[in-house]
Design brief:
Shape: globular
CATH topology of the largest domain: Fructose-1,6-Bisphosphatase, Chain A, domain 1
Strand content: 15-25%
Radius of gyration: 20 Å
Number of domains: 2
CATH architecture of the largest domain: 2-Layer Sandwich
CATH superfamily of the largest domain: Fructose-1,6-Bisphosphatase, subunit A, domain 1
Bound molecules: 2,5-anhydro-1,6-di-O-phosphono-D-glucitol, manganese (II) ion
Helix content: 25-40%
CATH class of the largest domain: Alpha Beta
Order of helices and strands: HHEEHEEEEEEEEEHEHEHEEH
Number of helices: 7
Distance between the termini: 43 Å
Number of strands: 15
Largest sheet: 8 strands, mixed
């Protein structure tokens, strides 16, 4: 039965869902609900702009480079500014960090500071903006740990295991808001006619094993041999099913992860000879996705340790990522770490 039709879920908006969850935690002050309201607002604004990007002359490059050394697309900048403006004034956040900004983003002194630290990838999958392929926004929420008047970089450099919440928006055929606050993973779909996110995927469970792998095979020439062997193993017909894994690769982490979360399988961005730490960033790509994966019964690893146990050293540090179904990730780790051939 369609979960959205279950009586207890019918018409559940994101706001009501978070509020109901909030009631279960007497210590909750309502700050968390407000934080999610502002995140949802930012998502709706970006979703609206994404759906008209081609028309509003927003396509193409600003010509500026970001800390990652990539050309910054107009929508990256728009999404970045939208998230900052929606989140800086509400009094829930004490510090932010963004893929598009070299250093942590302080809250202007004219606004009150709250207890949450928000880090985000404002526009994930930038190279897909101009070709109308799904893109997304990824966010990670920690609690402030620093003492004293001003928050510090230490508030950002916390291991993923300490995240209070994590989630993403996927701007695809429909706009979805998927999050966890440590109590399962829940998906909401935007009804643009009323401007509300409605619960559509309660308690998402990652299948223990899937049928697809998702990796950029264009990098094979620079992969280490164990990674090549692992991918080749995936492509050999399975002894019991007689079928190999199918390949699926969108090139937007949010889209590739969303498919993996719902259907199972494994996504990987391995380290390679050019990038010893792979391409994806720990704080606002790998760690939030890892919390979602583990909360949904899956796994996420660097190939040698759980993503959520990595202690960050730098704001924009990169990590290799293997994420998805528990058994598929275990196979990957066993093979790429050389413990099984
Ligand atoms: P971003 O657009 O935020 O820089 O992220 C792009 C990332 C991620 O979305 C995706 O999984 C990966 O880049 C794809 O990289 P390749 O094009 O090298 O496969
Ligand atoms: Mn990204
Ligand atoms: Mn990005």
């Amino acid at each position: 039965m369609d979960p959205t039709q279950k009586p207890e879920h019918h018409g559940w908006t994101l706001e009501r869902f978070v509020l109901e969850r909030q009631r279960e935690f007497p210590s909750a002050t309502g700050e968390f609900t407000q934080l999610f309201q502002q995140l949802a607002l930012a998502g709706k604004i970006v979703a609206s702009r994404v759906s008209q990007a081609g028309l509003a002359g927003l396509l193409g490059h600003t010509g500026k480079m970001n800390v990652q050394g990539e050309t910054v697309q107009k929508l990256d900048e728009f999404a970045n500014q939208t998230l900052i403006h929606c989140l800086e004034a509400g009094g829930q956040v004490c510090l932010m960090a963004s893929e598009e900004v070299d250093d942590p983003i302080p809250i202007p002194t004219r606004f009150p500071k709250g207890r949450y630290v928000l880090m985000f990838d404002p526009l994930d999958g930038s190279t897909n903006i101009d070709v109308n392929i799904s893109i997304g926004t990824i966010f990670s929420v920690h609690g402030r740990v620093s003492e004293g008047a001003e928050p510090s970089l230490a508030d950002c450099l916390q291991p993923g295991r300490t995240q209070i919440a994590a989630g993403y928006l996927v701007y695809g055929p429909s706009c979805m808001f998927v999050f966890t606050a440590g109590d399962g993973v829940h998906g909401f779909t935007l009804d643009p006619s009323v401007g509300e996110f409605f619960l559509s995927h309660p308690d998402i469970q990652l299948p223990a094993r899937g049928k697809t792998y998702s990796v950029n095979e264009g990098n094979e020439a620079v992969w280490e041999q164990p990674v090549r062997d692992w991918v080749r193993w995936l492509k050999t017909p399975d002894k019991t099913t007689g079928k190999p894994y199918g390949g699926r690769y969108v090139g937007t982490l949010v889209a590739d992860f969303h498919r993996t979360l719902l259907k199972g399988g494994v996504f990987a961005y391995p380290a390679d000879k050019k990038n010893q730490n792979g391409k994806l960033r720990l704080l606002y790509e790998a760690a939030p996705m890892a919390m979602l994966a583990e909360q949904a019964g899956g796994a996420a690893s660097t190939g040698t340790q759980a993503i959520l146990d990595v202690v960050p050293q730098h704001l924009h540090q990169r990590v290799p990522l293997y994420i998805g179904s528990k058994e598929d990730v275990a196979d990957a780790v066993a093979r790429v770490s050389g413990s099984k051939s």
